[in-house]
Every structure is written in structure tokens, then in C-alpha cells.
Amino acid sequence: MDAPDQIFVLLKHAVVSWFPTPVQPWISAVLSIGAILAVYPMIFALTTVIERKALGRIQNRPGPNRVGPAGFLQFAADGIKSLTKEDIVPRAADSVVHFLAPLVVVVPPLLALAVLPVGRNMVALDLPETGLLFFLMVGTAVELGVFMAGWSSHNKYSLLGAMRAIAQLLSYELPLLLSTVSVVMLTGSLSLNAIIGHQSEVHAGVLLGWNVFTPWGAAGAVLFFIAALAEANRSPFDLPEAESEIVAGYFTEYSGFKFALFFLGEYLGLFAVSGLGITLFLGGWLPPLTVLSWVPSWLWFFGKLAVLMGIFIWLRGTLPRLRMDQLMRFAWQFLLPMSLINLLVAALWQYSTPWPHLLRWLPAAILFGIPYLLYHRAFLRQHPPRTYRYAS
Amino acid sequence: MPPEPVLSLAFAIVAGLVLGGSVAAVSCRNRVHAGLFLAVALVGLALVFLRMGAEFLGFIQILVYVGAVAVLIVFAILLTRGSDSAHERRSNAPGIGIGLAVLLWGVLAWGILHRSPGAIATPSPPPSMAVRDLGERLLREELLPLQTVGLLLTAALIGAALIALPEPGISPRPSGSHGSAGTETPPSSPT
Fold it and tell me: What is the ipTM of this complex?
């Protein structure tokens, strides 16, 4: 029963044991890095195809359907195309910064993926003291890369995209950080393994204690994933690269493989931040019910990742893009106060452990419900329902 | 962990990053380049913290300084039209800057050398840099300073918001999006 769960761990140990002892740590590290470099870009490739097909389905058209079975080898064709295209650098561009920017965008998400536990005993870089902090630190480095790309291209659309991106990334980082803080408060640790371990206690005999099953966890997960979408520049928060407004935003002046690197970095960032959300709120590699614990742990993690990707694709096909002022107002006037309230709710939950379970949900409902209703009323007063004179 | 030699390869790399980054930051003609080199120097400083075992400080250094401060500096340079100044003079008064740097260095060196000689030879055990201990200290012993700093930052934030607010007496400029650019005619309301 344990074999399928630990198959990759056992495989790695077997490979490492072939080598002499002094080089074993190096081989172990190389294997972990190799696994990350192989698995996530492969998921990226599959996601692009599935996304294009799903968007096509939503928009009532077939999507890619020529390359391979049902168009599923489209990613290979795209990869070969972007590798063989000419690499164009504008004459006015700052060539060194222009060259470095894609690297600064791609490397941080890869580093962040290294600290995510993807299964039992499966984490490439275990930081027992500061795992979560490492993840958040690495995520901020992307902003500099985006700026470098936008500024060095010497193009007004690139610069506009970079300015939008920086404003958006800085604003949505606050709710993202604050909603992770509630998890840290309740777990008492910054280690991602400890956070998963804290969610493994069993309630009512069958249900595992995922954080999303608590009021602060449910609200925190919603806030986290909204902010995560914005951090990953995903629709409906894709203003920095809004095709219909500013060409391709900060990577307008990139072509060929550098363009592909930006694309890759964006999806890797989305995987990383979704993986963090899974770890913090959705139980990491834990099953939801105890009877399902025979399913291998890594399958749970990647299954949850696949479900989240499906939801994000669905959102992208459904929601229109926000306007810049709506974007900023949403972050500062709604998400930020709500995530501060969430901290209060988390503290109340912590100190009300002796209460009966249903009574513990009451303060959370009041604390979230009343501000939400007030906000809703104020919003309706500012923006009364639209009337369409000719379209109705 | 075995005792490292003072001039190990890792130290050389980190020192190179810090020194190279800061020298380039003050000598670059292009101000955006200077800002980016400043970010390199700040990453180097974070690596210095990490080498001393202060994981928390190192990560926070990158989180705050590289993720926020460096980006804001670079943007401020960009928005104030300082980035196109390739032919500007190097500095208005380099002597003052160099003098200040030498003075600061002198004060620091004096301070280090005039500690009791034994303090350098037999260093006291370094204070714990574990995140848990840092948190306990911040929220128990140093609670008042922490709250004061928080209040200061809140005041600064409110001040910034006040400055950014539109002044009540001045009506906001009409948006020139109706195609009547450069004329004095008030924008007619579109029907």
C-alpha cells in the first residue's frame, strides 16, 4: 500500500545509492532539480493545449485540432516554432537589460516551486524555519524582471504594461500576504510541512482538518486565490498584457524563445502560487476523507492543481477584464479590509476552541457578513444598476 | 559545520556582488542602470545575512528592499524623466560624498576597534536568529517600539493619501478624450 505513494522517493534513493558517498548530496540535489525542471514545464505544455481547447469550447469553436490526436501535440509545434523564430532586439532597446529580463522572470517561480511539498516526503528544498517566507521572497523578485522588460524595450506599450504590472503586483501582494498570515497564526510555524501536518488531524472520524473547512480558512482561501490570480497576471486581472489595449504589455518587444520564456514564467508562477494555496488551505497532498488515503499523496497534489487550473481557465473564458481604477479599488477597498478582518476571525477561532462547533462559526459570519453588506450597499449607491435604452 | 577560511569562494562571490553592485550604482551614468545595480547590491547584502545564519533577516531583506524599495526607486527615476540623462555630468560635488563616506567608515572603524580587545578575540555566543525567538522578542520585550514604528508608518501612509487627494477648491481637469485637444472649449457632455 505504501509503494505507489513513495515510488518516486524510493526510486530516487535507489539511484542515489549507486554513487559513492561524497557525491551523494549532489546527485540528490541534481535529481530533485531535474524533476522540477521536467515536470512543471510538461504540465505547462499540457495546460496551454487544454486551455486553448477549453476556451475554444466556451467560445463555440474547435480550438487547436490539427497537430497530433485531437490537436494535443500543438504545444510541440508551438515550441519548435518559437525556437526557430528570429530573435529580434529593437535598435533602441537597452540590450543587456533586455536580455536579462526573461531570465529574471523565469528563475524565481522555479525557485519557489522547489519548496512546495508535492507528496509525502517529497519536497526538493525543505526549509523548516522559513519555507513560506522563502516562497514569498522569491515571488517579489518577478516585479523587477517585469520592470526590466518594460523599460528596456523602449516602447510605450511595454512601459505602460510594466507600470500597470507593478501597480497591480504591489497592490495585490498585501491581501496575498495577509491571508497567508492567518494560516501561520493558527499553525504557529512558517514550515510548509508543518502547515500540512497541522491539517492532518481527523474530525468526526472521516473528514480531515483542511484549513478551508474553517471560517477563516474558507474566507482566506477565497481572498488568496483572487490575489493569486492577480499576482499571476491571469484574466480577469490581465491588464499588464491586455492584447486589445496595449499589444502584449511589457513583453511586446520580445520574439521567439524569449517570448516563450515570458509565457513559461507566467504559467510557472501560476503553478507556484496555486501550489502554495493548495498547501495552505486545501490540505496539500492530504486526501479530504480518511477512506481515500489509499490514493498516492502526489496524485492528490497534482489532482488539486489540475482542478484549480480548470477553474482558472473557466474564469478566463467567462469574466471580462477589469478597468485599472476598478482593479486598484478592488484591492485596496475590498480585499485588504477583508483580509484584515480575516486575521481577527482567525484569532477568535483560535481562542474559542472550547465552544461548540456551530457557535464558533457565528462570530465569523457576523464579522464577514456585516462589512460585506455595508460594502455592497455603498457600492450600489455609487454604481446604480445600469439601464440600457436601446439594447434591452 | 567546519570553520570556514575568512576568504572562502562564497565570501568572495558575495563581497563581489555587494562591492561591485554599490560601486556601479554610484558610478553609472544611466540612472535606471544605477537603480538596478543597487538591487544587485541589496541581494548581495541579503546573502551576507544568509551566510551568518540569519535566514529571516536575509529573506526579509529581499522581500522588502528588492521586491518593493528597489522597484519604487527605479520607478521614481523613470517617472521623473531622469532616465534619459546619458550626457549629464558625473556629480555636482563628488568631494562631499567621498568625504562623508570616509567619515562614516572612520566612525565605524573607531567604534569596532575601541571595543574591549577581548570582545573581538572571544566573541560572545551570537543571539538566536530563529524566527520563533525573533517573534517572541518583538512581541514581548520590544512591543512598545514595534507599535511606535507601526504608528509612524500609519501616519506616513495617511499623509501620503492626503497629499494624493484632489484638493477641494480645484475642480479636476477636464479629460481631453473628446477629441478637442488643446482648445479652451469646455468639454460638451456627450449625448
Answer: 0.76
